[in-house]
Amino acid sequence: MITSLLEGNKKFVAEVFERERPYFDELAKVQKPTVLWIGCSDSRVPVNTITQTRPGEVFVHRNVGNIVATNDWNLSAVLEFSINHLNIPDIVVCGHYGCGGIQALDNEDAEDRYIPIWLINAQKARSRVDQKLAGLHIDVSPEKRHQLIVEENVRLQLDHLREYPFVARAMAGGALRISGWVYDIASGEIRIVS
Ligand SMILES: [Zn+2]
User: Fold this and answer.
1) Would 91 disulfide with which of 23, 36, 95, 109, CB 3.0-4.6 Å?
2) Rounded distance from Cα 64 to ligand 1 centre (Å)
3) Per-residue pLDDT tens over the stretch 78-98
4) How far does residue 185's CA lie from ligand 1's centre (Å)?
5) Is the pTM of this model over 0.85?
């Protein structure tokens, strides 16, 4: 498999890089992305493909379940760099239906050590949805419930984002907007949830 990745790179250099040489020459000097994408690591949600964006346009952070955890130094450094150094004006948190991370909120594997700890940061999305459904006495299909939790998880992670003082400050000053989206892997469409 990794051989085909290197073959793909040869093709990229020969067919794309050479054709768009001036664009890549400019990119080699500086990056000016206008969006920070916080998405899931899922292989079916490749940001540049599903948004038809090019190298240099989107700064990217991906993890299991598109989670924003304020004790995550990896994401914290990405945020600091994006906002304070790249002056990125938009952050998108994008979840997706069929998310294994969200499914794992219901089905913990006893063998896993790290996934359950990581998913603590998303548990509230599940409980919010279950409480709402119980309160409304609504019975929904497991698939619909999953979709609702995926959407709620995006809203929850936006809440976490606002907990960073420098994020809140940038938003208050009008320098930063945050948006919540969900990608439907069955249709290829992105839905705006917040
Ligand atoms: Zn996922």
Assistant:
1) 36
2) 6
3) 999 999 999 999 999 999 999
4) 10
5) yes
Q: SS3 of 189, please?
A: coil
Superfamily of chain region 32-192: Carbonic anhydrase (3.40.1050.10)
Give me the helices (H) in 30-164, please: 47-50, 73-80, 100-103, 115-119, 123-136, 142-162
- pLDDT digit string (tens) for 120-167? 999 999 999 999 999 999 999 999 999 999 999 999 999 999 999 999
Q: Measured in angstroms, how far is the CA atom of residue 55 from the centroid of ligand 1?
A: 23
Residue 46 has pLDDT above 90, yes or no: yes
Task: Please count the CA atoms within 13 angstroms of the CA of 187 that sit on its side-chain side.
Answer: 7
Centre of ligand 1 from the C-alpha of residue 97, in Å: 8
96 is catalytic: yes
Q: Does the annotation count 126 as an active-site position? A: no
Catalytic residue among 42, 94, 126, 160: 42
